[in-house]
């Protein structure tokens, strides 16, 4: 059975991700206590109505048994194909979302109401408490920072996540703009703002680093290739160490001012040049998406 565990911070989009998986044919369960996961998987895999795909959302509402999750994930992975999707967002974005929806955070309320869970008096305290509770799960999963994502973009990224079923370390190149903040899901961040900026060419300003005119502009600059070569050398040097550490995902964030030109071009170029070294996905956080476009997967030197 293929199992996707969705976890992370409340308000970061777990419901959107779960709905996307339901649309993809997964049997979906929200807020299942972790200790019941093995029983549910066994029941669905061997029951009268045999299910091949299961998605379960787990968050701080199950805090009493979150400590059991690492062991449960390892046990499930010995019998099933298990992947973990960890959704995160900045505290500022989360506060705004809870304010707009008027929903209560699962850990907010009078502190004395539930001493075991430890409900917090303020929303900000509840968010930080939840970060502490779910932090150990982040290392098991593919992380997505939804702070600046629209719901349709998150759905597209979740779809890309479940479509790529290859084993081994997944190398993610994510472009972003510093003016919208650092991506929380990055393992390494490279700042390419020192490079010439196509934004100041009025002909190139409305385009992105995937458009031919911007590609020609940046590709003709030796300093751009010097930056790309340096980042590539760094990644190649340390990639074996992360494989030895049994990491499933490694996210390399490339940032420029707006996340539209330089970072996009460099992320695409690095992905193509490292496609023979690992399974590679390219993701653009802040560049305008074309209709029907999601993150693109690269393997064996070819864009998919």
UniProtKB/TrEMBL annotation:
Assigned keywords, A-Z: ATP-binding, GTP-binding, Nucleotide-binding
RapZ C-terminal domain ranges (all copies): 171-287
Residues that, per the record, bind GTP: 59-62
Span of domain RapZ-like N-terminal: 1-162
InterPro entries: P-loop_NTPase, RapZ-like, RapZ-like_N, RapZ_C
Gene3D superfamilies cross-referenced by the UniProt entry: P-loop containing nucleotide triphosphate hydrolases
Keyword Nucleotide-binding attached: yes
Any GO molecular function: GTP binding
Binding locations of ATP: 8-15
Presence of keyword Ribonucleoprotein: no
Pfam assignment, any one: PapZ_C
Protein name: RNase adapter RapZ
Source species: Trinickia symbiotica
């Amino acid at each position: 059975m293929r199992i996707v565990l969705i976890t992370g911070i409340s308000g970061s989009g777990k419901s959107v991700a779960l709905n996307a998986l339901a649309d993809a044919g997964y049997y979906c369960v929200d807020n299942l206590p972790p200790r019941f996961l093995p029983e549910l998987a066994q029941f669905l895999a061997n029951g009268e109505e045999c299910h091949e795909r299961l998605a379960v959302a787990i968050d701080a509402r199950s805090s009493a048994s979150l400590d059991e999750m690492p062991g449960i994930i390892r046990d499930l992975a010995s019998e099933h194909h298990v992947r973990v999707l960890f959704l995160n967002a900045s505290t500022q974005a989360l506060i705004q979302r809870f304010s707009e929806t008027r929903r209560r955070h699962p850990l907010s309320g009078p502190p004395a109401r539930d001493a075991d869970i430890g409900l917090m008096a303020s929303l900000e305290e509840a968010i930080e408490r939840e970060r502490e509770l779910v932090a150990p799960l982040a290392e098991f999963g593919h992380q997505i920072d939804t702070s600046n994502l629209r719901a349709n973009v998150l759905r597209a990224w979740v779809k890309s996540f479940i479509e790529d079923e290859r084993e081994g370390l997944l190398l993610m190149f994510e472009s972003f703009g510093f003016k919208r903040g650092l991506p929380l899901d990055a393992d390494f961040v490279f700042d390419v703002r020192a490079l010439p900026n196509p934004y100041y060419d009025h002909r190139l300003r409305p385009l992105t680093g995937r458009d031919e005119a911007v590609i020609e502009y940046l590709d003709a600059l030796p300093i751009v290739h010097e930056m790309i070569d340096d980042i590539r050398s760094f990644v190649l040097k340390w990639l074996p160490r992360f494989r030895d550490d049994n990491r499933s995902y490694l996210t390399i964030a490339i940032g420029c001012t707006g996340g539209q030109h330089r970072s996009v071009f460099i992320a695409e170029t690095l992905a193509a040049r490292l496609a023979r070294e690992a399974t590679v996905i390219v993701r653009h956080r802040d560049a305008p998406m074309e209709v029907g476009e999601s993150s693109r997967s690269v393997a064996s030197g070819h864009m998919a």
